[in-house]
Design a protein that fits this description.
This protein has 114 residues and is mostly beta strands. 0% of the residues lie in helices and 52% in strands. The strands form two sheets. Strands 2, 4, 5, 6, 9, 10 and 11 form a seven-stranded mixed β-sheet that branches. The radius of gyration is 13 Å and the shape is globular.
Length: 114
């Protein structure tokens, strides 16, 4: 059974940092691209970042590039999203996604106050 469980969300002031983690199980983690998506309240889900199976390459949405960093630890079956210089517009529910097997975590709230 595939499971993706996010942790590390919460509330932070503008300019602050948070690190999200996602623990994966039930599939060959190192063989899979992993993504982070987010969904602001009342809006569509949007792509945030992606990382290849080896962790060698990452890709970012234009509005987080330079502030967010995606990484992974294949030995621990975990993927991370380091978020720096957070802005109120980053407030959203963040999801860990394994796109090739169409699996999503339950999501975790990140709230950035001004």
């Amino acid at each position: 059974q595939v499971r993706l469980v996010e942790s590390g969300g919460g509330m932070v002031q503008s300019g602050g940092s948070l690190r999200l983690s996602c623990s994966a199980s039930g599939f060959r983690f190192s063989d899979n691209i992993m993504n982070w998506y987010r969904q602001p309240s009342g809006k569509e889900r949007e792509f945030v970042a992606a990382i290849t199976g080896t962790g060698q390459y990452g890709n970012y949405a234009h509005n987080v590039r330079g502030r967010f960093t995606i990484s992974r630890d294949n030995a621990k079956n975990q993927v991370y999203l380091q978020m720096n210089d957070l802005k109120p517009d980053d407030t959203a529910v963040y999801f860990c996604v394994a796109p090739t097997i169409n699996s999503w975590g339950q999501g975790i709230q990140v709230t950035v106050s001004s």
